[in-house]
Amino acid sequence: MLVRRTKEFNRLLRAFSSCPGPTNCPSGVPKNFPPQNITQESVDRWKTDEAFQETRKQITLATTIPPEAYYDESYFIAEQQQLFSKEWFCIAHAAEIPKKGDTKVIDVGQQSFIVTRDKKDKINAFYNVCRHRGAKLLEDTHTVNRKRLNCPYHWWSYRLTGELVSTPFFESDNFEKGNYGLLKVRCETWNGLIFINQSKDGQPLKEKFGILSEAFENYPLDEMKILGSKTYEVDIDWKLLAENFMEWYHVAPVHPELAKFSTPDKHLMWEGTGQYVGFMTHPVTNSGGPADTDLFNPTPGSNSFEQQTAFFFHLFPNVAVTCYPHSVYTLVMLPISAGKTKETLYLLQHPESRLLSDSDEQFREKADNLLNFVTKVNEEDIWVCNKVARGLRNSQYRGGRFQPDMEQTCYRFQNMVADSMTSKPANLLYPPKMTDWNAAFPHLIPGYIPPIPQEEVADTLLNIDGMTSEDAMEEQQFSLLEVDPETETVKVLVPELETIVEFDPTKDTLFNPILEVTQEGIKVDISGELAEKTVCGRDIN
Q1: Contact 323, 308 (CB under 8 A)
Q2: C-alpha–C-alpha distance, residues 332 and 344, integer Å
Q3: Is 388 a residue whose pLDDT tops 80?
């Protein structure tokens, strides 16, 4: 019996074990994490509205999120708990696992995931942990084709769909294999990008990106092939890399070659409703460089406008997508630990974008030149982001300001970060031209009082302690909240009613005594004389 079991042992070892040994298996776990000196109190302070109140202000008054958000270990822990444990985020491209049986390991902070393409061509995601004793199943960070997922510790074996199928030498009347499959993670694809969500709650992925999902319905990103990729591990927080991508304030000083093709003066916002940031360059300029539009066919399905335009989208939280007329390159940013990120650049192109007249050698040369071009741009970004990552650690730096036009995208993004950290609704879709968080989402402001319906407001104003509307206007104090110069509507806080009133002072007869509303106050007509009421209450701008 002992001899037979030993032979079986060795046979299974050869069949199942791919680990070179306990001392040679690499670990993706950062050392000394989490540090013993990190208290729950220091983590929880990053989950409060107070931590981000300066970023909530109107863009011309707002300050960027606290600098600790880019390097502090207590913030990193809070971010893993609040954002990456609860929301959709991107981990890879479907094109990285193109064949049935392909698998890939993705590490994010302390969590490790396995992505598989099963026999039915379905993409799945699981936690990278054996259900027996908790061993990490796989270590490969590149794509490997497998028939099974096998644990190197005790040889438990799982299908690519997660079912447990083999438990050598393990028999028990109280054990059912069907109850011990791999732990699944919600997994969906969006235009060829793989997203996961560790929470069981929340909206479907497509709803997260709002109007952007509709804009790409006829644009075949999921049919594109990877021309090349490059991975970087940098001492830069993922948010710094994201913010750098989405603003063009730095293009001229940092990217001289890119500025010839995608000139800063032709950059325009492209933002609609959704959890994303967008802008574009129209038209792009052929400048004799490797990204010129005449070197490839345009992406099939694109229209004449798209064939002259470069689109830049950052899908919250962690993937940047650049759509050139003939190709797409993406940046997937995954946090490793506080202030450290693994970023992978992918260059993709639809097979029909290759010119029929190109030989294999000609096409490969043009594709390599394009890859070198976007890689050079990205490495210029890494170079300058390194300076930011080091500079913001200075103790006297408490945050900067937003350039209202070219960094409107960063304001939008940072407020999305603040939403995640403070547990705002996961289905919160940002409107276009969002430059004042408080005005866009007043119902989320702490202490918010819902407005009384308009007809009730009118009745109440006409009957305050038996006064007429004219008397009420003489004695009423108004706090200006917002003025929309395009629609000429005004929002004011009426303290006596404890409500917010929205009206058009040029048309609403109830408010005829109001002659003019400015940021400084409200001019009213009292007994035929001009007077200026003092703005009282809180100023949300």
Answers
A1: no
A2: 5
A3: yes
Q: Is 149 exposed, middle or buried (0-12, 13-18, 19+ CB in 10 A)?
A: buried
Sheet of strand 529-534: strand arrangement: 514-517, 521-526, 529-534
> In the CATH hierarchy, which fold is given to the domain comprising 214-421?
Naphthalene 1,2-dioxygenase Alpha Subunit; Chain A, domain 1 (3.90.380)
Q: What secondary structure, in 3-state letters, does 429-451 show?
A: CECCCCCCHHHHCHHHCCCCCCC
Half-sphere exposure (Cβ direction) of 433: Cα atoms closer than 13 Å: 1
pLDDT higher for 515 or 95? 95
Neighbours of 221 (CB within 10 A): 21
Distance CA 443, CA 462 (A): 27
CATH 3.90.380.10 spans which residues of the chain? 214-421
Residue with tokens 């990456």: 84
Please determine, for residue 305, whether its predicted confidence score (pLDDT) is greater than 70: yes
Kindly report, as residue ranges, where domains of CATH 2.102.10.10 are found in the chain: 2-190
Q: What span, in angstroms and rounded, lies between the C-alpha atoms of 478 and 177? A: 68
Report the 10 Å Cβ neighbour count for 192: 20
Percent above pLDDT 90 for the chain: 63
Contact (CB, 8 A) for 388 and 410: no
Indicate if the pLDDT at residue 14 is higher than 50: no
Neighbours of 153 (CB within 10 A): 16
Whole-prediction pTM: 0.78
DSSP at 184? B
Structure tokens at 283: 């038209």
> For residue 229, which amino acid is it?
S
| Measured distance CA(538)–CA(445) in Å, rounded | 12
Vertex 161 angle, CA 157 and 163, to 5°: 45
What CATH fold (topology level) applies to the domain 2-190?
A: Rieske Iron-sulfur Protein (2.102.10)
Copy the structure tokens of residue 27. Answer: 């670990």
* Token pair for 92: 């890879």
Largest CA distance in the chain: 110
Nearest to 239 by CA among 392, 424, 69: 69
